Amino acid sequence: MAVRVASLYALVYGQTGALDDVQVTVRVEARNGNTHSAAYFSRLECRLAFAGATLSVLHAYPFRVPARGVLPLAYVARAQGAPLGDAGSAAMETALRDDVVPFRVEGEARTRWKVAGIVGVDQWTRLACQLHFFWPNATVLPFRCSSKSKRHQSGAAELAAVVLVKVLAVVVLLGAVTVLVVVLLLQPRASYMAVRVASLYALVYGQTGALDDVQVTVRVEARNGNTRSAAYFSRLECRLAFAGATLSVLHAYPFRVPARGVLPLAYVARAQGAPLGDAGSAAMETALRDGVVPFRVEGEARTRWKVAGIVGVDQWTRLACQLHFFWPNATVLPFRCSSKSKRHQSGAAELAAVVLFKVLAVVVLLGAVTVLVVVLLLQPRASYMAVTVRVEARNGNTHSAAYFSRLECRLAFAGATLSVLHAYPFRVPARGVLPLAYVARAQGAPLGDAGSAAMETALRDGVVPFRVEGEARTRWKVAGIVGVDQWTRLACQLRFFWPNATVLPFRCSSKSKFLFF
Question: Which InterPro entries does the annotation name (predicted)?
Answer without folding.
Answer: NDR1-like (IPR044839)
